[in-house]
Amino acid sequence: MPSPSRPFVVIAEFRVKPGSLDAFLDLAHDDARSSVAGEPGCRAFDVAVSESDPLTVVFYEVYDDRAAFHAHLETPHLARFRAGFPALIEEERPVRFLARTASGADAR
């Protein structure tokens, strides 16, 4: 019997322009909420702001598998985010892809 695939994790990080954080977070929150609500393969989509650098924003996204992430790339809410965020950032750092091996939520 084949083993189930591990959840696919995406970490994206942005450095936002001064004065643009609220607008960036509006776009990010729309993408995150829409992803979890409307994509069966999206398990989690967290948006976090660095305590040490409040203009650094990190996305932590968890998908059932790589195929679910690829489906996310075709969604209208991601298209809205992609259309709006470039004017709001100074830097988009390289996206990281990982295979999750465990979650503390599994202990509940």
Automatic annotation (TrEMBL):
Matches recorded under Pfam families: ABM (PF03992)
Claim: Metal-binding is one of the keywords in the record: no
UniProtKB keywords: Monooxygenase, Oxidoreductase
Gene Ontology molecular function: any one: monooxygenase activity
Keyword Oxidoreductase applies: yes
PROSITE patterns documented for this protein: ABM
Stored PANTHER family: ABM DOMAIN-CONTAINING PROTEIN, QUINOL MONOOXYGENASE YGIN-RELATED
Record protein name field: Antibiotic biosynthesis monooxygenase
